[in-house]
Amino acid sequence: MAYLRKEKQTVEIDYPLGEVWQVIAEVLASLDWTVEQTNDPSYQAKVKTNSGFMSYRSKLAILGVKVDDKTCRIVVEGETPVTTITALTDFGRTSDRINLFFETLAKRLHTSKNLNNTGFSDK
Q: Which has fewest Cβ within 10 Å: 15, 25, 37, 74?
């Protein structure tokens, strides 16, 4: 018997939505996740993660929302199919994958903010 484990996480980021959306494309490529569908004008994407040992791929829906000119909100909803066999080894996998996405996004945004035109840190 299979069912879906669902998770949702919302993060507000102090960067313009357009800039964050460009970095999200880089993040997904670096994680080697499959982008199934993207709608850049409405800041939406559907993504499949990689499968793990004794776990299925997760499907993530990513939505970007403009709060103001300098702030945006990123909403990630994920679901992972789970069976009675994989239920114990897969516990928290969807949440882990969403957290991995946001951690990688934060690192990329931090890196892009601290680099100037020459590629060297402003520090």
A: 37
Q: Is 82 left (phi over 0), alpha (psi -120 to 50) or beta?
A: beta
Number of domain units in the chain: 1
In angstroms, the CA 86 to CA 97 distance is: 16
Domain annotation covers residue 105: yes
Structural domain including 83 reads 2-110
93 located within any domain: yes
- Rounded distance between C-alpha atoms, residue 87 and residue 109, angstroms: 34
Write the pLDDT tens digit of every residue in 77-106.
Answer: 998 887 655 555 556 788 899 999 999 999
Which residues, in sequence order, are bridge partners of residue 65?
A: 73
Output the CA–CA distances (angstroms, integers) from residue 91 to 4, 86, 88, 94, in the order listed. Answer: 12, 8, 6, 8
Give the three-class secondary structure for 57: coil
Q: How far apart are CA 108 and CA 3, in angstroms?
A: 34
pTM of the predicted structure, to 2 decimals:
0.83
Average pLDDT (29-33) is 95
